[in-house]
Each structure stands twice: as C-alpha cells, then as structure tokens.
C-alpha cells in the first residue's frame, strides 16, 4: 500500500468504520451518522479497498470486526478522540461578536447566549456600539441586535419579536405624575431623539404630524442624559422599565403606540456554520419567549 492509496482515506471513512465497529450494525450506524445504509456500505468498502484488508466480518446477521479490524479500530478511536479534543479547543477560542447599541432585550439575550454557548462551546462576545448596523456591514461584529426597520439590501435581517413603547421624562417634568399618555399626545412636546439607533423620531408619524421641536442626540447615553435634564420627552421600548436605566427619569405608560420591531442583522455568509447556529439559537429563544 502506497501513500497514494492512503491519501484516498478521509475522515468520513474513519467515522463510518468506528460507528459500525462500535454498534455492530450497519443499520444502527447509518442511523447514527444520518446517512443511508447503502452509502455507509460503500464508504466501508472504499476504506477496505484503500487499505487492501478486510475490516468487518459480514458473514452473520451481527457484524463483527476481523482481527485486523480490531487492531485498526484502536488507532481510529484514538485519532477521532484527539480530533474531538482539537475541535473543542478551537471552539473555546472562537467567538461570535454580537453588537448592540443599548439595552439588550431580556430575557431573550440571556437565553440565546446560554443556549448557543452550551450547544456549540463557542463564546459570545458582547460589543457595545453606537451604530450596530454599520458595524455589521463593516465586519466589526458578526451579528447585531437592531431595533426598527432595516432597509439595507446588503444586510439580512431576521425578525425576532416586537417591543411595546413607553414614554420617558425627567423626574422634574410636569408629566412626571401622569398615569399614562396617548401616542397622539407625544408630538405636543419636545422630543429627544437618538438619530443613530433610536426607535422613535419624527419618522414615526406621518409627514407633518410629528413633533415640532426635536432634540437630536447620537447615542443612548446622550439621549438619556438629555431626557433626564428636562430637554424633552423620550420614547423607548419597555425593556427600559425593568432595567432602572437612570434615577433622573420617570416612565409613563403609553397607549396607542405602534410596536417597535427587534431584528437580528448579519451579513448573509452562507458558509459560516457557527453564525447560522447562532441565528437559529436567537430565533428559538424568541419563539420560546413568545410561547411563554
């Protein structure tokens, strides 16, 4: 047997042989490997042809390894075990970079990260950024939680769920003691807007129906500090109510407000299996939250 013959042996051949030898059955091994029994039989035959030996005794209903097969399976098991340790080591060093501009949705974020890391062994690195969508496009993050509608044709957006909105004002505002506000009342007050990643702005109303006075900010910190300083009213998803984001603001229930969509944005790299698994975990967690 020369190097050219052994060069025909692939990892799939070793996995197939190990499964049949361990289970003593082509049927059970095919089911475990998620392939058809004829395909498994061809794979084993290719391995035996490449090695010029018989590895499995098929003379009875119960498949057994030949003496040569028993010798070989010891080496195959060690090789596969070492490879698995190598895979695990690489996964522990790998990570998915998840971008977000402010206040990751809960409990979705915690459930998604835990589900993905436990299933894959790959770490999720959280990246705080003022413009998460731009960072996705530039490759600074692998995926990002984005609130609002995405119009970019280069980015894929998977809708996760919708959030309710609440009004936010300074503790010193004349609105601070209001029991609730109507969505139609918001334009009567100066509106503080995060123009980079905010969910509510003049664009949230039909042309001419929005607020007359708009205070523009470029990130969440500027936005919340402007609201706390009494420069205007803010509107934010209700996740903020549970997070106690600032002692200088009050939250007011908002009636009649449209929902705020939350999407997971990423570049459509079809060969990135780890990213696909993260998206799957994200969608599953969103469905679980909806069902719960």
From TrEMBL:
<keyword id="KW-0010">Activator</keyword>
<comment type="similarity">
    <text>Belongs to the LysR transcriptional regulatory family.</text>
</comment>
<keyword id="KW-0804">Transcription</keyword>
<dbReference type="Pfam" id="PF03466">
    <property type="entry name" value="LysR_substrate"/>
</dbReference>
<keyword id="KW-0805">Transcription regulation</keyword>
<dbReference type="InterPro" id="IPR000847">
    <property type="entry name" value="LysR_HTH_N"/>
</dbReference>
<feature type="domain" description="HTH lysR-type">
    <location>
        <begin position="9"/>
        <end position="66"/>
    </location>
</feature>
<dbReference type="GO" id="GO:0032993">
    <property type="term" value="C:protein-DNA complex"/>
</dbReference>
<dbReference type="InterPro" id="IPR036390">
    <property type="entry name" value="WH_DNA-bd_sf"/>
</dbReference>
<dbReference type="InterPro" id="IPR005119">
    <property type="entry name" value="LysR_subst-bd"/>
</dbReference>
<dbReference type="Pfam" id="PF00126">
    <property type="entry name" value="HTH_1"/>
</dbReference>
<dbReference type="GO" id="GO:0003700">
    <property type="term" value="F:DNA-binding transcription factor activity"/>
</dbReference>
<keyword id="KW-0238">DNA-binding</keyword>
<protein>
    <recommendedName>
        <fullName>Probable hydrogen peroxide-inducible genes activator</fullName>
    </recommendedName>
</protein>
<comment type="function">
    <text>Required for the induction the katG gene for catalase. Involved in the response to hydrogen peroxide.</text>
</comment>
<dbReference type="GO" id="GO:0003677">
    <property type="term" value="F:DNA binding"/>
</dbReference>
<dbReference type="InterPro" id="IPR036388">
    <property type="entry name" value="WH-like_DNA-bd_sf"/>
</dbReference>
């Amino acid at each position: 047997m020369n190097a050219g013959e052994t060069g025909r042996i692939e990892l799939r051949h070793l996995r197939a042989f190990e499964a049949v030898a361990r289970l003593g059955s082509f049927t059970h091994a095919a089911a475990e490997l998620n392939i058809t029994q004829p395909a498994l039989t061809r794979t084993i035959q290719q391995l035996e042809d490449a090695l010029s030996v018989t590895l499995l005794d098929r003379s009875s209903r119960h498949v057994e390894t030949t003496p040569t097969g028993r010798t070989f399976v010891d080496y195959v098991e060690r090789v596969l075990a070492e490879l698995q340790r190598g895979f695990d080591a690489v996964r522990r060093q790998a990570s998915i970079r998840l971008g977000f501009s402010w206040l990751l949705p809960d409990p979705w974020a915690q459930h998604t990260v835990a589900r993905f890391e436990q299933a894959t062994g790959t770490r999720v690195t959280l990246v705080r950024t003022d413009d998460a969508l731009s960072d996705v496009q530039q490759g600074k993050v692998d995926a990002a939680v984005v609130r609002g509608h995405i119009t970019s044709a280069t980015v894929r957006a998977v809708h996760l769920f919708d959030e309710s909105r609440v009004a936010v004002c300074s503790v010193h505002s004349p609105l601070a003691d209001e029991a609730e506000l109507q969505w139609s009342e918001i334009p009567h007050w100066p509106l503080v807007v995060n123009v980079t990643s905010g969910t509510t702005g003049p664009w949230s109303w039909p042309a001419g129906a929005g607020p007359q006075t708009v205070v523009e900010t470029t990130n969440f910190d500027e936005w919340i500090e402007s609201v706390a300083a009494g420069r205007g009213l803010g509107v934010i998803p209700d996740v903020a109510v549970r997070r106690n984001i600032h002692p200088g603001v009050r939250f007011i229930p908002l009636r009649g407000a449209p929902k705020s969509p939350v999407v997971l944005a990423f570049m459509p790299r079809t060969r990135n299996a780890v990213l696909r698994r993260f998206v799957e975990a994200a969608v599953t967690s969103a469905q679980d939250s909806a069902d719960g």
